[in-house]
Automatic annotation (TrEMBL):
Protein name: Exodeoxyribonuclease VII small subunit
Taxon lineage: Bacteria, Pseudomonadati, Bacteroidota, Flavobacteriia, Flavobacteriales
Molecular function GO labels: exodeoxyribonuclease VII activity
Xref: Pfam families: Exonuc_VII_S
Organism: Flavobacterium aurantiibacter
GO CC entries: exodeoxyribonuclease VII complex
E.C. number(s) listed in UniProt: 3.1.11.6
Amino acid sequence: MKTKHVEITYTEAFEELNRLVLEMERGEIAVDVLSEKVARAGLLIKICKAKLTETEASVSALLKELE
């Protein structure tokens, strides 16, 4: 069974990551789901990093064209 890939924007990923961090800092996450939340945070960090790298490459390419 294939899982449908849902595209998430940088802003959505960043905001969700911020919410998870706040929950963790406040101790609002039950120990039973902590590893799940940490895994989700790791995925969100990867998404944000990939989107930033992609944007940086696009901007660099555009600037190079303008030279």
